[in-house]
Amino acid sequence: MNQLVRMSQIGEAETIKEPSAELRVPFAQSGAFVCKFIIGEPTERAICCGAPVQDGKSWCASHRRIVFEPTRPGRIR
Question: Which InterPro entries match (predicted)?
Answer without folding.
Answer: GcrA (IPR011681)
